[in-house]
Write a structure and sequence with these properties.
Shape: globular
Strand content: 35-45%
Order of helices and strands: EEHHEEEEEEHH
Radius of gyration: 15 Å
Strand order of the largest sheet: 1-2-8-7-6-5-4-3
Largest sheet: 8 strands, antiparallel
Structural class: alpha+beta
Oligomer: single chain
Low-confidence stretches: none
């Protein structure tokens, strides 16, 4: 059972996410950053993710495309601002279906009792942008992705 928490405080521009993983921090970091692993956990259960680009380094760009069974495509992209293995990743996040609504995401990984504590803070340009992300159903997709990341990290450990 996941201990995922998603904190969305009224009137703020951020979303704070925490979750623990039953895998070592370096393994979780590898699963989150190595291109051969990304498509195995990123995205919804009912879509296939194609990693178009994943230059996981400061200044590198990323772009992922989710493809649904009915042929729909949903693309996301951003830029990595800071990457320090296995501690943290700072990157932008933008859904190509709504260009101009960019979030800055900071992902941190801490060692915790033989596992990993994951914390992410997404800061949006406006409260309205943040609220739109929440209304989009992001929490369900996030839960699916992080559950898949857990399974992948355990298999790599």
């Amino acid at each position: 059972m996941s201990d995922l928490t998603v904190v969305v405080e009224p009137g703020r521009q951020d979303i704070v996410i925490t979750r623990s993983f039953d895998a070592p921090r370096d393994v979780v970091f590898r699963a989150m950053t190595e291109p051969e692993h990304l498509a195995r956990w990123w995205g919804l259960d009912e879509t296939d993710t194609v990693v178009d680009r994943a230059e996981v380094r400061p200044g590198g760009i990323w772009r992922f495309v989710e493809r649904s069974a009915d042929g729909g495509e949903y693309a996301f992209h951003g830029v990595f601002h800071d990457v320090v293995a296995p501690e943290h990743i700072v990157q932008t996040f933008e859904f190509e279906g709504m260009p101009g609504h960019v979030a800055m995401d900071t992902h941190t990984l801490e060692e915790a009792d033989g596992g990993t504590l994951y914390r992410a803070i997404s800061v949006f340009q406006t409260v309205e942008d943040r609220d739109g992300m929440v209304r989009s159903g992001m929490e369900e997709g996030l839960a699916q992705s992080l559950d898949a990341l857990e399974r992948l990290a355990r298999s790599l450990a």
